[in-house]
Amino acid sequence: MIIIDDFIKDEILLNDIKNKKDFFGKNGNFMWWNGWWNNQADTLKKRLIEYIWRYNSPDKSYDISGFEYWTGVYGDGHPNTDLGWHFDKDELHWKRTGGQENDGEIITPEIGTVFYPMDTEFEGGYLEIEKSNGEVERIEPKFNRLIIFNAGGDKHRVTKVKNGVRYAIAINLWQAVPVAAQEETMAMEKPEFSIPLSIKSNGLKGGLS
C-alpha cells in the first residue's frame, strides 16, 4: 500500500474539481476509460486519472487495458453514510459464472486507487483495509491524499460518516476489460472539452509508460 499526502500540486486541477458541480455523481455509477494511449483525457475525471497514473504514478509497472472509476459521496443529506466490507471484482462476470451460490469466477483489478479531492469537514469515513493476518488498518480520509492498494485482494470498507459529507473518487486499473465495459453497459463519459492538437499524445499503445 502507498499513501501520499498533498498529492496534487496543480492548484488549477484541484480548483476545477472543487468548482465542477456534477463531478460527483450517484454512488455506484461506474465508468470506463481505455486510457490516454487510445483516447484523449477529454473530461475532468480523465484529467485526474492521467495526472495520477501517467504523470505522477509511483509505480508504472502495470500492463493494463484501462480504468474503471466512480465517485463516492457519503454523509449528511445523502443516501449512503457508509460502505460495507467487500473486495473489488468484475461483478457481472462473477454473477454470470455462478455468483455467491455457485462459486462464480472472480476476476479482480491489478490495483486500486482512492483519492480525496474535496476539503470538507466530517467525522468518520475512514477507509479500513483488512490485512492477510486479520488485522485492520484504518486510514483517515484527508484532503488531497492518494491511496494505492490491492482493492481486488484486500477486503475494505468505509466507516460511517457523521456531521458532514465525505467525497472521494476510486480508480481501478484493469488488465482484463470488465464485462460491463466490453458490452458497453458501463458508463462512458461524454467529452467535456477538446484537446489542443499540440498536446495530444503520440500513439501510446498501452500500459502506464
Describe this structure in words.
The protein is built from four helices and twelve strands. The protein is of the alpha+beta class. The protein has one domain (2-189): Sandwich (Jelly Rolls). The strands form three sheets. It has a six-stranded antiparallel sheet with strand order 1-9-5-12-3-2, with no helix packed on it. It starts with a strand and ends in a 27-residue tail after the last helix.
Large-scale geometry: globular
Number of strands: 12
Cα end-to-end separation? 21 Å
Structural class: alpha+beta
CATH topology-level name = Jelly Rolls
Q: Write down the overall mean pLDDT.
A: 92
Question: Would you spell out the secondary-structure blueprint of this structure?
Answer:
Layout: E1 2-4, H1 11-19, E2 31-33, H2 44-55, E3 66-75, E4 83-86, H3 91-96, E5 111-115, E6 123-124, E7 127-130, E8 136-139, E9 146-149, E10 156-158, E11 161-162, E12 165-174, H4 179-182
Antiparallel strand pairs: 1-9, 2-3, 3-12, 4-10, 5-9, 5-12, 6-11, 7-8, 7-10
